[in-house]
Design goal:
The complex is a heterodimer of chains A (184) and B (480).
Chain A (H helix, E strand, L loop, with lengths): L1 H51 L8 H28 L5 H22 L3 H17 L11 E8 L2 E5 H8 L4 H9 L2
Antiparallel strand pairs in A: 1-2
Helix pairs in contact in A: 1-2, 1-3, 2-3, 3-4, 4-6
Chain B lengths: L1 H37 L3 H17 L4 H4 L1 H22 L2 H18 L2 H17 L7 H16 L6 H18 L11 H14 L6 H19 L1 H19 L3 H16 L4 H21 L5 H22 L5 H25 L5 H13 L2 E3 L5 E3 L6 H15 L2 H18 L7 H4 L2 H21 L2 H25 L1
Antiparallel strand pairs in B: 1-2
Helix pairs in contact in B: 1-2, 1-4, 2-4, 4-5, 5-6, 6-7, 6-8, 7-8, 8-9, 9-10, 10-11, 11-12, 12-13, 13-14, 13-15, 14-15, 15-16, 15-17, 16-17, 17-18, 17-20, 18-20, 20-21
Classes of the chains: A mainly alpha (184), B mainly alpha (480).
Chain lengths: 184, 480
């Protein structure tokens, strides 16, 4: 009887090791990747806010360009994590998509901020904007109109939605026009 | 026809042999390069790498030229060796070459270590060329650090920690480059230092490392993220410490330069008054301890800086501690006193009256009408009785009775105030030390009273003098 119980316990442990552990390991990886994604999105926002704290003058141009580069690098990391998650996950990725889209929007805005007539930067801004919209196509509420899970402070102004930021920072509607040009 | 076929065969055979010989050559060259690199023979490594690159440009068909693993190492060895030669010869062209080689290696393979290295070199070049607005190096280094962190599954090892420290030091060095005219606002460098400190905190830091990152985080944040100003301030204080130990001209100039740069780049009034105060202190220390300098120059400088600090204090009302406010008042009062004293002492060797009037004019900078027809100092400071006393001397020497009496009366009261004594109970309260200090004031008071015939003063001063002298004698006897 005792032997049977022991056998049953060993069997249960093996089953656990074979089926449950890989699942929990995958969940662990997924959870740490998600944390990292959120962390890097936080970095994107930090860089964007810091960049906006600089006044617009030729003297600050180099610094704003450097901020833009760092922001792009953080965004690339967010996207890399998103891609990894899409590979390891089978069901909906709504939340991850939204995070990736938000990072791309900020990257587009940062590119626009430093473009100063630079066609490559404008093109990159357009591409990021389009990719962000494409990522969140079909969402119940547009990612631009969703309330942000964090606050974005620029000077004395608080932004709680990306749409407000977009209206304020893209006064010439450059991003909107690049959507028209692409035929979308 | 047959002849043509033979010729073609021979030609293709020769071509095959040639190419195999060349392929062998690239492989051999690469082995030699590896050996030269491992034996730290930098010049030979660079030569061999150049030969490989040249050969591959001529004949791309060679397999080694197409092997990423070979070529990324060729460029890596070349870049690192060029950098080694640069450190010996300090030729900036070599540094530029090294950067280009590493960038090429990175393009071929994407090793984050290589990104960090070429970013480091780019920043080093910017520092060397005093080009403080070249920030690409920092961007690349940071990208390398983030990738290394990811490669290590977001764990911080000693190597990464070392890189973080290098990164912080470079960011700081870049933001103070060039020393005299900042090309950026320093905001980016400050941000990057904070990022590095954030990342470092993810690991288990030793006490020294924790201190390092804490210090630099503070330096990146204080005074509205003024890394540049804070760094000059820190360097100024470090130089000042050295200067206090060894007050020579070199350390004086170094301290002043650093503190003046900290003042120039200060963002807040609080920081400005602090730096002005420190500059005054340094100049006063130089005047006091140096024998080979013109004292007047330092005193004038100290007075100017102290006056600026005091004016900011009054006009802008900065949010500073009481201690700092008192210190500013003290250095201002002290610089005026020392100037008055300096001109007073000149009376022995130059035009007497002119020296006394000069001394009085300087002293009057701190005086305001006291609503009783006399003058009082704008503020009380630690040692303000000394200034009154010296001005009383000036009044005595120039024969200005009103001024002399006003000043000595205020000096006496100030001396009692500073010694926390009351005139009515002086004899019971005074200690030996205080008595020997007060006797100076009594002597000058008596001198003035005698000269201008102030009988009432002489009447009440006599018992005080007697009591102070007795107190001093008692103590002297006790120690005899």
């Amino acid at each position: 009887m005792k032997f049977n119980i022991l056998k049953r316990s060993v069997f249960t442990i093996i089953v656990l090791l074979l089926f449950v552990m890989p699942v929990s390991r995958a969940q662990q990886i997924e959870s740490s990747l998600e944390k990292l994604m959120v962390n890097y999105e936080g970095k994107v926002i930090q860089v964007y806010q810091e960049m906006q704290a600089l006044e617009r003058s030729p003297k600050t141009h180099q610094e704003r360009l450097a901020f833009d580069e760092v922001l792009s690098n953080y965004t690339i990391r967010v996207l890399e994590i998103y891609k990894t998650l899409t590979r390891i996950k089978t069901f909906t990725l709504e939340n991850y998509k939204t995070i990736a889209a938000r990072a791309l929007f900020l990257k587009a805005l940062a590119n626009l901020d430093v473009a100063d007539g630079d066609k490559a930067k404008l093109k990159s801004a357009c591409e990021d904007y389009q990719q962000a919209l494409a990522l969140t196509r079909g969402a119940k509420t547009s990612v631009l109109s969703q309330s942000l899970p964090y606050e974005i402070w620029i000077g004395d102004r608080l932004y709680t939605k990306l749409a407000e930021l977009l209206d304020d920072k893209d006064k010439d509607r450059v991003l909107l026009r690049c959507m028209n040009n692409s035929g979308n | 026809m047959k002849r043509t076929q033979y010729l073609l065969m021979i030609f293709s055979m020769i071509a095959g042999i040639t190419s195999s010989v060349q392929a062998q050559k690239v492989a051999d060259l690469f082995e030699q390069t590896k050996a030269a690199y491992e034996s730290n023979n930098s010049k030979q490594t660079v030569d061999l790498c150049r030969q490989i690159i040249q050969q591959c440009e001529q004949s791309y068909a060679e397999p080694e030229c197409r092997y990423t693993n070979v070529m990324k190492n060729v460029y890596l060895y070349k870049g690192l060796s060029e950098y080694k030669i640069y450190t010996e010869e300090q030729d900036l062209d070599l540094l530029t070459e090294a950067i280009a080689s590493l960038q090429k290696s990175y393009e071929l393979y994407g090793d984050p270590n290589v990104t960090f290295n070429f970013g480091y070199m780019q920043t080093q070049r910017a520092i060397k060329m005093q080009n403080g607005n070249e920030l690409e190096g920092l961007v690349a280094s940071w990208d390398g650090i983030l990738s290394m962190y990811a490669n290590q599954e977001w764990q911080l090892d000693d190597e990464l920690l070392k890189n973080l420290k290098i990164f912080v030091k470079q960011a700081v060095e870049l933001t103070v480059t060039p020393a005299d005219s900042a090309m950026t606002t320093g905001r980016f460098a400050s941000f990057m230092v904070r990022q590095a400190c954030d990342l470092a905190e993810q690991g288990h830091l030793s006490q020294d490392d924790r201190l390092f990152f804490d210090v630099y985080r503070k330096r990146a944040i204080e005074d509205n993220y003024n890394l540049r100003g804070n760094e000059w301030r820190a360097r100024g204080f470090a130089a000042e410490e050295e200067f206090i130990q060894n007050p020579d001209d070199y350390s004086y100039r170094k301290t002043r330069t650093n503190l003046e740069l900290a003042l120039r780049y200060s963002k807040s009034i609080e920081r400005q008054v602090e730096m002005l105060k420190e500059l005054t202190k340094v100049a006063l220390h130089m005047e006091k301890n140096s024998t080979d300098r013109l004292a007047e120059t330092e005193l004038l400088y100290a007075r100017e800086k102290a006056a600026q600090a005091y004016n900011l204090l009054v006009e802008r009302r900065p949010n500073i501690t009481i201690d700092l406010e008192n210190e500013i008042k003290k250095v201002y009062g002290n610089s005026i006193f020392r100037m008055v004293d300096y001109y007073f002492s000149l009376a022995d060797s130059t035009d007497r009256l002119n020296a006394y009037y000069k001394a009085r004019r300087v002293g009057e900078e701190l005086l305001i009408p006291d609503r009783k027809g006399g003058w009082e100092q704008k503020f009380k400071w630690d040692g303000y009785e000394e200034l009154y006393l010296r001005l009383a001397d000036v009044g005595y020497e120039t024969g200005d009775e009103t001024f002399a009496v006003d000043m000595i009366d205020k000096a006496w009261k100030a001396a009692l105030h500073s010694a926390k004594l009351s005139q009515t109970d002086l004899c019971n309260e005074v200690t030996n030390e205080k008595a020997s200090n007060l006797i100076l004031f009594v002597d000058v008071y008596q001198q003035i009273a005698n000269r201008f015939g102030l009988q009432t003063v002489l009447h009440w001063l006599r018992p005080i003098r007697k009591c102070l002298v007795n107190r001093m004698n008692v103590s002297t006897n006790r120690y005899e």
